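Model it.
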Amino acid sequence: PPPAPEPKAKAKAKAKAKAKEWDYSGLEKGMHCQAEAEGKFWSAEIVTVSTNKARESKPVKVHFIGYTDASDEWVAGDRLRCKALGLKGKDAAAGMPYQAKRLLLVEPKVAAPLDPGFRPVILGKKAYLEAAKDCTEKLTWALIRSDGVGRYSLPVFDEKHKDYKASSYLAGVLIQEMIWQRSASGMKLFGPARICKAIKAAFSIGGAYEFEAKSMPHVCGTPDAPFEVEIVKTLEELPEGKDTPQVCGKDASGCRLAFDLGKSDIKTVAVKDNEV
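Modeled.
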């Protein structure tokens, strides 16, 4: 026999818990999309995206292509198909937000034969810096280790700018890259409050870069000391950059271990007297 129907209160609570929180910040007037009506998706155009709380449940007004304005309708994200539409909170995909994709995914002149969809970070960074050349605010970070400090500044869009999310995304990628290049036992941040809080959350337990936050104490030989992110109030509170040259030996005799620490596995190679 079919299962008994759930009590209404329980069913409503379950539905509410599963409700997705949509991110409409990438949607713009005139943008083409598909909108659902009568169980089917039709070609449509964004008329406006309302920030009025009264329209919070259905903030997007769409115009169905080929129909009169009388058919325009206010809809929510569950009735839209658009690359610029995203999700918030725990529902957010691990991938790039629309604003970051638009600015950072730059096609190279020569495609990679084994990965035609490859988009080099350096090209995305150049495109971003060109787009952000007039930005007056910067996010500056210092990655602190026992024998030095890695430091960098990135111009960032104002939090109300349509490309703000590209700033927070690129900052996370650059910090991650720098961490694995130079290591870090902790990080200090200075810049606009919102992006500093976002980066701190990303490099904390439960954040997008939790793996780095958990791995660095072991990489730095301090497994009992957690990776901490501190937001400072003045630029002067950040330590200056400092690189310490490392002397590499030329004697390949004896026993050595090499490892590649990845998110999915750890690859280890043992070498004895220059033989694997």
